[in-house]
Amino acid sequence: MTAETSQTLDRGLRVLKLLADTDHGLTVTELSNKLGVNRTVVYRLLATLEQHALVRRDIGGRARVGLGVLRLGRQVHPLVREAALPALRSLAEDIGATAHLTLVDGTEALAVAVVEPTWTDYHVAYRAGFRHPLDRGAAGRAILKARQGYTQDAGLALTHGELEAGASGAAAPLLGVSGIEGSVGVVMLADTVSERIGPRVVEAAREVSEALR
């Protein structure tokens, strides 16, 4: 800690991170051990976070992330979208295809940013807010590959006609971005994806990953 930082705020944020990393919640004793502070400090932290609905405690006394975190999370998409737009614009112009950033939303893939090329005679209309199952479409398949531990190169997913007849897609996963599962990809009217497109999509995915770190 430095003179410019708040120890209490730091501890509160660490509590949220610890709770976000577990599906079963943590007891006061477990949090005390992980934070290296006494139980009284943990009780105060939890009480404050509960007042803001960022933490809840179940009947057994285990602390879990509260629904208030969802309200904060609604502001994440605009920030992520802004950070990704430069790489998406470059990708769309280079390839001449519609580029998109897709994030996991529950059990679905959600397009949160879309950039269409400016110089093509025609391209696929793909809108922000479009949803589809994770196991259909290049964007979702790339995310599933990342879950299996694939690198960005090996995580490249190529599909044809899975979401729209006559359209092909290529996507590579975002990697190394804490708290975010997603992919960067392109969709085009073509029977196949040319060999040069895959590496360019992977490059764009790396650029977005770096921008979000």
From TrEMBL:
Source superkingdom: Bacteria
One GO MF term: DNA binding
Coiled-coil ranges from the UniProt annotation: none
Keywords tagged on the record: DNA-binding, Transcription, Transcription regulation
Positions of the HTH iclR-type domain: 6-67
UniProt keyword Manganese present: no
SMART domains linked: HTH_ICLR (SM00346)
Transmembrane stretches, start-end: none
Domain IclR-ED: 68-213
CDD domains, alphabetized: HTH_ARSR
UniProt-listed GO biological process terms: negative regulation of DNA-templated transcription
Entry annotated with the keyword DNA-binding: yes
PANTHER family for this protein: HELIX-TURN-HELIX TRANSCRIPTIONAL REGULATOR, ICLR FAMILY (PTHR30136), HTH-TYPE TRANSCRIPTIONAL REPRESSOR ALLR (PTHR30136:SF24)
The protein's name in its UniProt record: IclR family transcriptional regulator
Native organism: Streptomyces chattanoogensis
